[in-house]
Amino acid sequence: MKKKILYIEDEPYLARIVKDTLEMRGYEVLHKTDGNKVMDYVGNFSPDICLLDVMLPNVDGYSIANHIRNVDPNLPVIFLTAKTQPNDIVKGFSSGGTDYLKKPFSMEELIVRIENQLKIMKRETSQLQSLPDEVVLKQYKFYPGRYELHTPKEIIKLSNRESQILGMLCANKNNTTDRRMLLTEVWGDDSFFNSRNLDVYIRKLRGYFEGADGIEIVTLKGKGYHFVVA
What we know:
This protein is an alpha/beta fold. The protein folds into two domains: 4-120, Response regulator (Rossmann fold, 3-Layer(aba) Sandwich); 131-229, Winged helix-like DNA-binding domain superfamily/Winged helix DNA-binding domain (Arc Repressor Mutant, subunit A), CATH 1.10.10.10. The chain is built from eight helices and twelve strands. It has helices at residues 12-24, 38-45, 61-71, 86-94, 107-129, 160-171, 179-187, 192-208; strands at 4-8, 28-32, 49-53, 77-81, 99-102, 135-137, 140-143, 148-150, 155-157, 176-178, 215-220, 224-229. α5 (107-129) crosses α6 (160-171) and α6 packs across α8 (192-208). It starts with a strand and ends with a strand.
């Protein structure tokens, strides 16, 4: 069965090249120029992965990724953009992106990144399914299969990346989780680019447990993280 790609890009020449090339490689591509109805596209087309430009008419790619993440935390999102400043990259990952490719890019690199994201998604799904349905963390409860963290005050919908990282921390609860292992398992390598991405997710997870009694993610410089549940 063909893998489905939802592609949001308003530059017609680039969009035609990308769409035609991906279709020749065996993908089914739905191309749109505007993100206004992106959730309809996600629901009706059921893509396996999304490719998003950041600078779009009416609504930007970051906002689109946030909407997607709230509905389908498991869906990979690759940003394709000329915005290359470090804060742009951090914003992209914070909004729910799983990869970030700078324009101009080669089609071969894009295809490799798409295939890598699909492999990672498959591996992540398998890893999360191996955890218990409910992980009790003092006054919190983590439901890996539902991508939910239940706190005393609210239910937090986690992204797939957040769920996988938290799952690995839970598997090593009260022990050290090696940083390099986290990077390799979640992103496939421990590059500086992915390392910055991991920092973003750790900060977000810390925020979810802020104020929790006896729960802390401790950074062990040069080694990794100690997930304390005491």
